[in-house]
Amino acid sequence: MGFIPQDVGRMSVWKYLAALDGYIAANSTDEDKSLTESEKDELAEWLGI
Protein backbone atom coordinates (compact mmCIF):
# COMPACT_ATOMS: atom_id res chain seq x y z
CA MET A 1 0.00 0.00 0.00
CA GLY A 2 3.00 2.26 0.20
CA PHE A 3 3.20 2.89 3.93
CA ILE A 4 6.53 2.76 5.68
CA PRO A 5 6.63 0.72 8.91
CA GLN A 6 6.69 3.85 11.07
CA ASP A 7 3.44 5.07 9.46
CA VAL A 8 1.75 1.74 10.10
CA GLY A 9 2.96 1.76 13.69
CA ARG A 10 1.34 5.15 14.30
CA MET A 11 -2.01 4.06 12.84
CA SER A 12 -4.88 2.64 14.83
CA VAL A 13 -6.19 -0.72 13.66
CA TRP A 14 -9.31 1.09 12.42
CA LYS A 15 -7.27 3.54 10.28
CA TYR A 16 -5.15 0.75 8.84
CA LEU A 17 -8.18 -1.36 7.92
CA ALA A 18 -9.88 1.68 6.36
CA ALA A 19 -6.76 2.33 4.26
CA LEU A 20 -6.65 -1.34 3.27
CA ASP A 21 -10.30 -1.29 2.19
CA GLY A 22 -9.65 1.83 0.11
CA TYR A 23 -6.57 0.29 -1.48
CA ILE A 24 -8.47 -2.86 -2.41
CA ALA A 25 -11.39 -0.84 -3.82
CA ALA A 26 -9.06 1.34 -5.89
CA ASN A 27 -7.05 -1.56 -7.29
CA SER A 28 -9.65 -4.19 -8.09
CA THR A 29 -12.81 -4.38 -10.11
CA ASP A 30 -15.84 -6.60 -10.45
CA GLU A 31 -16.70 -5.51 -13.96
CA ASP A 32 -15.71 -7.38 -17.06
CA LYS A 33 -13.05 -5.46 -18.97
CA SER A 34 -12.89 -7.68 -22.03
CA LEU A 35 -13.50 -6.22 -25.46
CA THR A 36 -17.01 -6.08 -26.84
CA GLU A 37 -17.73 -7.64 -30.22
CA SER A 38 -17.79 -4.21 -31.90
CA GLU A 39 -14.44 -3.31 -30.29
CA LYS A 40 -12.99 -6.60 -31.53
CA ASP A 41 -14.25 -5.85 -35.04
CA GLU A 42 -12.80 -2.32 -34.96
CA LEU A 43 -9.45 -3.64 -33.77
CA ALA A 44 -9.37 -6.35 -36.43
CA GLU A 45 -10.21 -3.77 -39.10
CA TRP A 46 -7.51 -1.40 -37.85
CA LEU A 47 -4.95 -4.25 -37.84
CA GLY A 48 -6.03 -5.35 -41.31
CA ILE A 49 -6.96 -8.86 -40.23
List the helices and strands and how they pair.
Blueprint: H1 5-10, H2 13-26, H3 37-47
Structural commentary:
This protein is mainly alpha-helical and 49 residues long. The chain has a domain of 29 residues. The chain has 3 helices and no strands. The radius of gyration is 20 Å and the shape is rod-shaped. It starts with a helix and ends with a helix. The mean pLDDT is 90.
Largest sheet, strands/sense/barrel: none
SS summary, helix count: 3
Mean pLDDT level: 90
Tally the beta strands.
Answer: 0
* Portion in helices: 55-70%
Bin the strand percentage. Answer: under 5%
Sequence of secondary-structure elements: HHH
Unreliably modeled segments: none
From the helix content, strand content and strand pairing, which structural class follows? mainly alpha
Shape: rod-shaped
Query: Could you tell me the radius of gyration in angstroms?
Result: 20 Å
Distance between the termini: 42 Å
